[in-house]
Automatic annotation (TrEMBL):
Domain DUF7905: 403-703
Region annotation (Disordered) ranges: 1-125
Domain of life: Eukaryota
Low complexity bias spans: 43-54
Name of this chain's protein: DUF7905 domain-containing protein
Lineage of the species this protein comes from: Eukaryota, Fungi, Dikarya, Ascomycota, Pezizomycotina
InterPro entries named in the record: DUF7905
Pfam families for this protein: DUF7905
Length: 744
């Protein structure tokens, strides 16, 4: 049987895909060496493991390297066009991601990526739709939705039912569902009758628990001196109206009664052919409940077709509901966006090379346990010089085209995520460009420049930009250099004038294993205003829970663009990623307590001991990774951009494996707080809604504030805010490049 072309093509790049044909035997002679693979360690979420390289070499100056020292090759044959090479051993950890994926054992010859990056494309398969977030619908609630009569009833005092939702928790705990149609609230309302749906035994247990709870609270229909607790406070008009609206709206979650007439009935043709509505919206289309209740409409599947939804209600409600259904389809499409990855080249000095070779890059050092094998990666570098006048012009135009392509791709992506529900983050980061999956060199030890450019444009090519800036010497002197750069930076606090007086912000990220997708807790602390500098008081800032992708264990990348300077391997990474927000009331109690226990130790801050983190927390068995950061934030003069320099340290705490502590490193990010403000709308986006922000690039990348030549520059040369930003990024990069030991 002929093999699927796409699968065969993917196998040419990724040896983790099992070949349908017999594999050739290992050959240590002139034939191809087949890279053997080890089965991945079982984890709650899937991952692909990759092989360590034959050896780990220290980083040398380029002049001291021989051709064969630059890139040891592990190759294998395939049936799809020749040998390939894949960086099968990941670096010590992928600090280019905010959140790690699953870690694998690093002491053996084989290892999965410590941050869980997939090693290559997966076999081609039908896209599985992602369900819109909604509560899990139990069989008991399904019975209520179908207008079935309750199994039993129980009476609950009105004030207890309105002001305390404990009765809901009791029903959920027994696997039942409770509901009432009573809407009268106020003095003399007495108690209400709640129907209970579910299995008879569970219903009986629910009723007994409800009665016991009501007796414990001491609430009843009539005042009593024997109550154990004081009577519940009288209901306010706000609570009364809220209850009435909720009860009236709840009816639209059920199937429409058969004896009711409607002012209008509309049909919505389901536009997605790959899957039926109930596959993405739930068996009862429960994901559409917010639309049903907001517009007072029933929404059901039409009997005559699998891809037609019927909307019933008054004329105004039906019209608005149909529009909301259209928006919902855009939301579903946004959740299934294919990530955009571009790896582009820039020539800051307008000087092009002729060939590209691979240089060894030392990954962040593991300081504990000390016997841990240190890892390295490969970073591209250019060699040779095309010095003709035409070559200089080609380099200049090529850089402009890369910048324009970056600009257009960002604009296109922003236009598609206005419907995306989730916690979205957009950052520009300075790091080192590393190859993780690439074609084997055919002859010699270098790529032709055109060959390298072709390779990076192919879908099988994989690369990443490190989180750390990359040069240890420059990183160690970065903070001092920024504190002196008063011609480029300014304190964000208008009352401050000295860059060295900018107080840091502290943050921590924790990752917990979970079968439905690992949970990510992000916390920040800042120094309280007017606190004693000798004993600063720290206040908790942000505390946010999100869920990572269940397959990769990382945030989902929507956009990943790297603009690389091949002279030194440095790259500006434009990254747009998303995670699913998680409400704290849906978390295990142990995780809620963990978040409450996490705090900053002032003594640890003073000691600056790399073996003892300054974030103190109660150990949790599910925690597999944590990172603490000390962030220094400055404003870029003439703009509203923030330059954030961070010192961070990572601890890999994967259960069942030896814990690893990495050396502290420094990262640099550039962003606008307006980006965070805009994208925060997506986090609270409801079904059928669109974010209110615009994707206009003039809004996302505004021109400089003031400046004598700001208007003239754009009018004369067509330079917009994005081009002005790129010039400022060049200045920032040049500042840190001058801090390196060799000045390159």
């Amino acid at each position: 049987m002929e093999e699927d072309y796409e699968l065969a093509n993917a196998r040419a790049w990724d040896t983790s895909l099992r070949d349908t044909a017999p594999q050739p035997e290992n050959d240590d002679g002139n034939g191809w060496q087949v890279a053997s693979r080890k089965k991945p360690v079982t984890q709650p979420s899937s991952q692909q493991n990759r092989q360590n390289p034959p050896a780990s070499h220290p980083q040398h100056p380029r002049q001291a390297q021989s051709a064969h020292q630059r890139h040891p090759i592990t190759a294998h044959s395939n049936n799809c066009g020749g040998p390939i090479i894949s960086a099968q051993r990941p670096p010590a950890y992928d600090a280019s991601r905010r959140e790690p994926g699953k870690s694998a054992n690093t002491t053996g010859h084989h290892q999965g990526h410590a941050f869980g990056q997939p090693s290559g494309p997966k076999p081609v398969k039908k896209i599985v739709p992602l369900s819109i977030e909604s509560e899990n619908i139990s069989p008991a609630q399904q019975s209520w939705r179908r207008q079935e009569p309750p199994v039993d009833n129980v009476r609950i005092p009105a004030d207890v039912a309105v002001q305390n939702a404990t009765w809901k928790s009791i029903a959920v705990g027994h696997g039942t569902f409770m509901h009432t149609s009573d809407v009268k609230v106020g003095i003399g309302s007495g108690s209400w009758t709640f129907g209970i749906w579910g299995e008879p035994s569970a219903v009986a247990a629910t009723k007994a628990s409800i009665i016991a709870y009501v007796e414990e609270t001491g609430a009843s229909e009539k005042p009593s001196l024997s109550r154990k607790f004081a009577k519940t406070v009288s209901l306010t008009p706000v609570l009364e109206k809220r209850w009435q609206r909720a009860v009236l709206a709840e009816r639209y979650r059920q199937f429409p009664p058969g004896d009711i007439s409607f002012g209008a009935i509309g049909n919505f043709q389901w536009p997605i052919e790959e899957y039926r509505p109930e596959e993405v919206l739930g068996q009862s289309l429960e994901a559409l409940d917010p639309i049903r209740m907001e517009h007072s409409c029933y929404v059901v599947k039409a009997e005559r077709g699998q891809h037609v939804l019927q909307v019933m209600g008054d004329d105004r409600g039906v019209r608005h509901a149909l529009k909301a259904l259209k928006t919902t389809c855009f939301q579903i499409a946004a959740r299934n966006l294919e990530p955009v990855r571009l790896h582009l080249i820039r020539w800051p000095c307008n000087s092009r090379g002729t060939h590209v070779y691979l240089e060894t890059y030392r990954d962040p050092h593991v300081i504990a346990p000390p016997r841990m094998i240190q890892q390295s990666s490969r970073s591209p570098r250019v060699e040779g010089c095309a010095a003709g006048a035409a070559d200089f012009e080609i380099a200049r135009v090529s850089t402009l085209l890369s910048i324009e392509r970056t600009r257009g791709t960002i604009e296109n992506t922003l236009g598609q995520i206005a419907w995306l529900q989730g916690s979205v983050k957009f950052r520009i980061r300075l790091g080192v460009f590393l190859l993780t999956q690439y074609k084997q060199l055919q002859e010699g030890d270098m790529y032709e420049l055109s060959e390298y450019e072709t390779m990076t444009s192919q879908s099988q090519f994989k690369a990443r930009t490190t989180e750390e800036m990359g040069d240890l010497h420059a990183e160690q002197n970065a903070l001092a250099a920024l504190q002196k750069a008063d011609d480029m930076l300014t304190p964000q606090d208008a009352l401050q004038h000295d860059l060295s007086a900018v107080a840091p912000v502290f943050s921590a990220d924790f990752i917990f294993q979970n079968d439905a997708g690992d949970l990510h807790l992000a916390m920040t602390w800042h120094i309280a205003v007017d606190s004693d500098p000798n004993t600063p008081e720290l206040e908790v800032g942000k505390k946010q829970w999100t869920r990572l992708d269940v397959d990769s264990g990382n945030a989902t990348k929507l956009l990943d663009i790297s603009l690389t300077d091949l002279q030194n391997g440095s790259a500006w990474s434009f990254e747009l990623s998303t995670e699913k927000p998680v409400s704290e009331d849906k978390l295990p109690r142990s995780l809620v307590k963990f978040a409450q226990s996490a705090h900053i130790s002032r003594d640890a801050l003073k000691r600056q001991d790399t073996m003892r983190p300054f974030v103190v927390y109660t150990p949790h068995s599910a925690m597999r990774w944590m990172r603490e950061r000390t962030e220094y934030r400055y404003g870029i003069i003439g703009t509203d951009y923030t330059l954030e320099l961070s010192k961070y340290q990572v601890k890999d705490l994967t259960p069942g494996q030896e814990h690893r502590i990495f050396e502290p490193r420094w990262s640099l990010d550039v962003y606008r707080t307006a980006w965070d403000t805009n994208l925060a709308h997506n986090q609270n986006l409801r079904i059928g809604e669109t974010a209110s922000w615009t994707s206009d690039m003039k809004e996302w990348f505004p021109r400089d504030i003031g400046g004598p030549d700001a208007d003239a520059e754009e009018d004369a040369a067509g330079v917009d805010g994005f081009m002005q930003l790129m010039k400022k990024l060049e200045r920032v990069e040049a500042l840190f490049r001058g801090l390196s030991e060799d000045g390159v």
